[in-house]
Write a sequence for this structure.
């Protein structure tokens, strides 16, 4: 138990569906992250929020839309995804920017796009 | 950010000490070296972080030579449960959020 929870743990969706991934951290951290981990590829940083403001957006397609309503919650809204978007989506948090080297990861959401 | 290079995989036996070396030739003055561990179907877990010389905690030791162009993660007396992927990262300590994970080293511990 890392203090970071993600729901759902598994998700299967069609290419025309709209779904959302949820992340919640119970650590009092100020920064939250979304990563994508595809099979046999390194983790890719997607988005970073610091104090509820987006500070990083690593050229992620617009079909992925993040939302950070407060410092404890982070969402990833998904729409019109492609099969190649199937991956493990990981959420992480860190105390703040000065501690970004120490991130706490959730268990991930295994997404399958059919 | 400095690129890191580490072996793709390593095998070991229970009870042995395992050393995983990471190269980071372009490391900058304000960069710190960080290691993570990832088990299958789980998120990575922070193991240890250091700037220079040696750092030790309850899980591992991290050796960093004076030129800081490489680092070695040392796992004492590994067990089967240490089978995982180990990632070496170089992270800007003074701020910024870019963390780049490489392919990592897949460690397989045998009985």
């Amino acid at each position: 138990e890392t203090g970071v929870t993600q729901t759902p743990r598994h998700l299967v969706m069609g290419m025309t569906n709209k779904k959302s991934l949820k992340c919640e951290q119970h650590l009092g951290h100020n920064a939250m992250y979304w990563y994508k981990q595809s099979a046999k590829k390194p983790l890719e940083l997607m988005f970073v929020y610091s104090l509820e403001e987006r500070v990083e957006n690593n050229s992620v397609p617009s079909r992925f839309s993040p939302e950070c309503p407060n410092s404890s919650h982070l969402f990833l809204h998904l729409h019109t995804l492609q099969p190649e978007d199937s991956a493990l989506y990981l959420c992480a948090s860190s105390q703040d920017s000065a501690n970004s080297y120490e991130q706490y990861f959730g268990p991930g959401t295994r997404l399958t796009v059919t | 950010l400095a690129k890191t290079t580490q072996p793709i995989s390593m095998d070991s036996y229970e009870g042995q000490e395992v050393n995983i070396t990471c190269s980071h030739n372009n490391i900058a003055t304000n960069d710190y070296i960080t290691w993570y561990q990832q088990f299958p179907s789980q998120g990575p877990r922070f193991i240890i972080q250091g700037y220079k010389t040696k750092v030790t905690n309850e899980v591992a030791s991290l050796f960093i030579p004076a030129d800081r162009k490489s680092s070695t993660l040392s796992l004492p007396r590994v067990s089967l449960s240490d089978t995982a992927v180990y990632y070496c990262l170089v992270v800007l300590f003074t701020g910024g959020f870019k963390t780049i994970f490489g392919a990592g080293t897949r460690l397989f511990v045998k009985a």
Summary: Chain B has a mean pLDDT of 90. The first strand of chain B starts at residue 9 and ends at 13. Strands of chain B lie at 9-13, 18-23, 31-38, 45-50, 53-56, 61-64, 70-75, 84-92, 105-110. Chain B touches chain A through 25 residues (CB under 8 Å).
